[in-house]
Amino acid sequence: MRNSAFNILRQGLTGNRGWPRTWRDRTPNRRYDVVIVGGGGHGLATAYYLARRHGLRNIAVLEKGHIGGGNVGRNTTVIRSNYLLPPNTQFYEHSMQLWEGLSQELNYNVMFSQRGQIVTAHSEDQLDSFAHRANVMRANGIEAEILDRAQLRRVLPYLDWSDRQRFPIWGAILQRRAGTARHDAVAWGYARAADRLGVDIIENCEVTGIRLEAGRVTGLDTTRGEIAADRVGLTVAGHTTQLCHMAGITDLPIESHVLQAFVTEPVKPLVHHVVAYGADHFYISQSDKGGLVFGGSLDGYNSFASRGNLGIVREVAEAAIALMPCIAPLRLLRHWGGIMDMTPDASPIISRTPVEGLYLNGGWCYGGFKATPASGVCFAHLLATGEDHPLAAGYRLDRFRTGHLIDEAGAGPFAWLQ
Ligand SMILES: Cc1cc2nc3c(=O)[nH]c(=O)nc-3n(C[C@H](O)[C@H](O)[C@H](O)COP(=O)(O)OP(=O)(O)OC[C@H]3O[C@@H](n4cnc5c(N)ncnc54)[C@H](O)[C@@H]3O)c2cc1C
Question: Is 35 helix (H, G, I), strand (E, B) or coil?
């Protein structure tokens, strides 16, 4: 009866005063076994898997704002596993498999929609490189298809197929299992599930300092007091360098940049896949409400401000209209930005740090939403056991010293595919 349509109506008419909280409003304890800093998707997933898979209970997630206020609530939600290099190929495919069962696992509908992702090719060479990628994917047990121009035209008739195209379309690579999910629901689902396993989720609690003794982490200074901790995991996305500075780690190979996204006024169903333009920085999908959600490349300068600039708006609009002239009359409703933690090889970091007891999960660049479940699993494994998860052993911080880079940015024109 509590979830009946009548109850929903009654709650709506009475100011929702009868809704139970989705997670408890906790006052921080003085001490925890593990503290996760950053209540985005990665932090909440890590806390959930620490409790679920490793049986830890004395865990807190500290979030300086509100749950879902960071990049987990600002991204364009593209989920795919069409990576070329190990361990990315296997890691992101594992994440995809976790997405496929996530609503059941969390008992929360994350609205995972496997509508397929299509990347257009604009030369014979580009189509060849896509065929190479598709072969790598298939060799790893991941489905992939190559579409020629005629096949693609049947699937995406609304693209510009005319002779006017500066970069004529040759075909595409398609991953049918790729798609989108509802970003807020992912944050809320992990938060609720972690809370039910006893994790303390503490909002409006900014970490302002990291306490060290003899090279080991002992606790955190926060805007809600000092909190002692045996192990601290950082999952603060674009703020990774700031938090690491607090622990004296000043040479991280990470730069923070703004990435913007855009949404148009709602229209009838038009874009039934996630479509990425292989000739420029532009990708698009359609929300359930009908808005066309799209994005492009990074702002070129370093910034911690969650707002973008008009130059990128113009660039992305130009690319959008070159591929899909039919959307030119639509009005842009809004655009927003989030802070990306960019690594030189465009691959993430799940690692110990030089400070004992301090662990780092970051460097997700513009592709971390899709990684959320696997990132949580692997980081929880590292925090609980002290050992790298086999899928994430390549993501150690020391690869930038040893030269074992995973240069996915240089492995193809895929840096902009989200
Ligand atoms: C416009 C845009 C589009 C994107 N599109 C995609 C996409 O389509 N697909 C994809 O896979 N990825 C995409 N991404 C990237 C993805 O959103 C990020 O890689 C991922 O969300 C980062 O992990 P997170 O969710 O944990 O980060 P966040 O949600 O940002 O979580 C980090 C949290 O740390 C908190 N924090 C920071 N400092 C402190 C402190 N001192 N104390 C306490 N808390 C602190 C922040 O408030 C924040 O809530 C996109 C990003 C943007 C901005």
Answer: strand
For ligand 1, say whether the CB of 282 is within 6 Å of any of its atoms: no
User: Which residues face 242 on adjacent strands?
Assistant: none
Whole-model pTM: value is 0.96
Domain ranges for the chain: 26-78+84-106+183-253+345-411, 113-178+256-342
Q: Are 392 and 94 in contact (CB under 8 A)?
A: no
The torsion region of residue 307 among left (phi > 0), alpha (psi -120 to 50) and beta comes to beta
Residue 377 has pLDDT above 90, yes or no: yes
Q: Is 366 in the pocket of ligand 1 (CB under 6 A)?
A: yes
Residue 202 has pLDDT above 90, yes or no: yes
Confirm or reject: Cβ of 373 under 6 Å from ligand 1. Answer: no
Looking from the CA of residue 366, the nearest atom of ligand 1 is: 15
111: left (phi over 0), alpha (psi -120 to 50) or beta: left
Nearest to 261 by CA among 337, 181, 364: 337
85 Cα–ligand 1 center, Å: 23
What pLDDT is stored for residue 411 in this prediction?
65
Ligand 1 neighbourhood includes 222 CB (under 6 angstroms): no
Fold of the domain built from segment(s) 113-178+256-342:
D-Amino Acid Oxidase; Chain A, domain 2 (3.30.9)
